[in-house]
Amino acid sequence: xxxxxxxxxxEKLHSDEPFRNRVLSASNMLECMVIIGSKxxxxxxxxxxxxxxxxxxxxxxxVDSNFSLWENIFPE
Length: 76
Known about the structure:
Layout: H1 3-15, H2 17-24, H3 29-38, H4 45-58, E1 67-68, E2 72-73
Antiparallel strand pairs: 1-2
């Protein structure tokens, strides 16, 4: 994944709520890779994990926090 593509994925996580919800609620990394691949992103699982970790760390914990990466979705 190029730096530009990594930034684009990060921005898409912020701006595209349905995409973000699908990615964050994926039951495992393989499913997550399929979801981002369908949007044209090509990266390793390590690169994806780094991008998701960055997104989650920057996210305020009291906003949209009904999820936990991987397999833990909390009811609203």
